[in-house]
Write a structure and sequence with these properties.
This protein has six helices and eleven strands. By secondary structure, the chain is α/β, with parallel strands linked by helices. The chain has a four-stranded mixed β-sheet, sandwiched between helices. A four-stranded mixed β-sheet has the order 5-6-8-7, covered by helices on one side. Helix 3 packs across helix 4. The two termini are 20 Å apart.
Length: 239
């Protein structure tokens, strides 16, 4: 059962579940706010917690509204780009050397040869995104192999228009959408767990849902957030 609380002009949908910690989320595209609290938490306690997070909520909503107005990327100076759910400004450096991408806490610096085309800049950034994913995905797979009792024979990264992931049950392979590098890391982890569970149960059966509930209790919130992002104009296969 979901209850709504109002704090100023912000409405928060509150759900109580068998979780250990409070999960507060601001969802794209318009900044809808949800809060999952442990079973038995009084509404007054939830309200008090939410009040302490009002500044963070408003910051997240402002970022999402800015993101919603973004145009297709041109990979130019001071353009907004997202990485692991955070917004960065792009800095472009022209240099007659091999293209490279670096990052600090505020900027993504793209170094390319003078006269580089839009297609070339996009290619360099996409290759960098793949490198970043390759740095974190194997550890996630290893972590969840132990927990789920499965073995992933291999994983693949690719751009997908309507899905965040996929699984070839017979081959033991999973696929991950490279766009996940732009989303918060917990959403990447959810997709990894989801696809790995298909090695146990290939379909979206009641058994599959029960496994998700057991191993990733906040899966519904993660699914909702992914399906509300621009990529998911078509629902992620009902997941």
């Amino acid at each position: 059962m979901t209850e709504n609380i109002q704090i100023g002009n912000i409405e928060i949908a509150v759900t109580r579940k068998a979780v250990k910690n409070v999960h507060l989320s601001v969802h794209p595209p318009r900044g809808r706010v949800t809060l999952v609290a442990p079973t038995g938490t009084r509404l007054e306690v939830v309200r008090a917690f939410a009040i302490t997070k009002l500044g963070w909520i408003r910051d997240q909503q402002a970022k999402l509204l800015g993101q919603a107005r973004e145009k297709p990327r041109r990979f130019i100076e001071r353009e907004s780009h997202y990485l692991w759910g955070r917004r960065y400004l792009m800095s472009v450096v022209m240099k007659d050397a091999k293209p490279v991408v670096t990052r600090d806490h505020r900027r993504i610096t793209l170094t390319v040869r003078p006269g580089s085309t839009l297609a070339k800049r996009e290619q360099v950034i996409e290759e960098w995104h793949r490198t970043l994913l390759h740095q974190v995905v194997p550890a996630l797979i290893e972590k969840w192999e132990a927990r789920l009792g499965v073995k992933v024979a291999g994983y693949f990264l690719q751009r997908m228009k309507t899905k965040w992931g996929g699984c070839n049950h017979r081959a033991g392979h999973i696929r991950l959408n490279t766009e996940l590098v732009k989303k918060p890391r917990d959403l990447l982890e959810y997709v990894v767990v989801h696809e790995m569970l298909h090695l146990v149960e290939p379909t979206h059966s009641d058994r599959f849902v029960a496994l998700l509930e057991r191993h990733y209790p906040t899966w519904r919130e993660a699914r909702a957030e992914l399906n509300e992002l621009p990529l998911a104009a078509e629902d992620w296969a009902g997941r």
